[in-house]
């Protein structure tokens, strides 16, 4: 049974599995750690700063966070996540390309969501949806 996700737009709560996965991933990418003083907020930007110059460790941490977010959102459903952190240019090790891929399986139907994030010096400079 999956959890509904509220939005700040006029559509209100999202209901389809693909929408929920997309919003959950997008919120993680766009959130700031200081967004809440009551709850520990997961934030891509904060994680990028924590693991600056450590792309292998960053990839592992992002995979753990994504797994945690999707498992909490889709309780009882099968969740498969992948995260790839690539250094775009060996001469510019602080320029990263990060791919988030997630497949949610509900009653034998797969729902795929993917995002591509470009980062320079721990700052997000581009954020796109990967068609799946």
Give the percentage of residues in beta strands.
Answer: 35-45%
- Give the overall pLDDT as a whole number: 87
Q: Terminal Cα separation, in Å?
A: 23 Å
Rg calc: 15 Å
Query: What sequence of helices (H) and strands (E) makes up the elements?
Result: EEHHHEEEE
> Helical content, roughly?
25-40%
Number of domains: 1
Under the CATH scheme, which architecture would be assigned? Roll
Which fold does the CATH topology refer to? Nuclear Transport Factor 2, Chain: A
Q: How many β-strand runs?
A: 6
Please identify the top-level CATH class. Alpha Beta
What is the overall number of helices? Answer: 3
Structural class: alpha+beta
Strand order of the largest sheet: 3-4-5-6
The shape is globular
Largest sheet: 4 strands, antiparallel
Described by its quaternary structure, the protein is: single chain
- Poorly predicted ranges (pLDDT <50, ≥5 residues)? none
Describe this structure in words.
This protein has three helices and six strands. With 132 residues, the chain is an alpha+beta fold. It has one domain (5-129): Nuclear Transport Factor 2, Chain: A (Roll), CATH 3.10.450.40. The strands form two sheets. The chain has a four-stranded antiparallel beta sheet. A two-stranded antiparallel ribbon has the order 1-2. β1 (5-6) and β2 form a beta hairpin. The longest helix has 19 residues, at 55-73. The mean pLDDT is 87.
């Amino acid at each position: 049974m999956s959890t509904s996700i509220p939005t700040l737009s006029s559509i209100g709560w999202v209901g389809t599995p693909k929408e929920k996965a997309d919003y959950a991933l997008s919120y993680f990418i766009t959130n700031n750690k200081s967004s809440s003083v009551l709850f520990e907020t997961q934030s891509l930007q904060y994680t990028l700063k924590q693991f600056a110059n450590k792309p292998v460790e960053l990839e592992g941490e992002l995979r753990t966070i994504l797994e945690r977010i999707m498992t909490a959102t889709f309780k009882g459903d099968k969740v498969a996540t992948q995260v790839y952190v690539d250094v775009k240019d060996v001469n510019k090790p602080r320029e990263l390309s990060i791919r988030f891929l997630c497949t949610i399986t509900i009653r034998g139907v797969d729902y795929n969501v993917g995002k591509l994030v470009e980062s320079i010096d721990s700052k997000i400079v581009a954020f796109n949806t990967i068609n799946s």
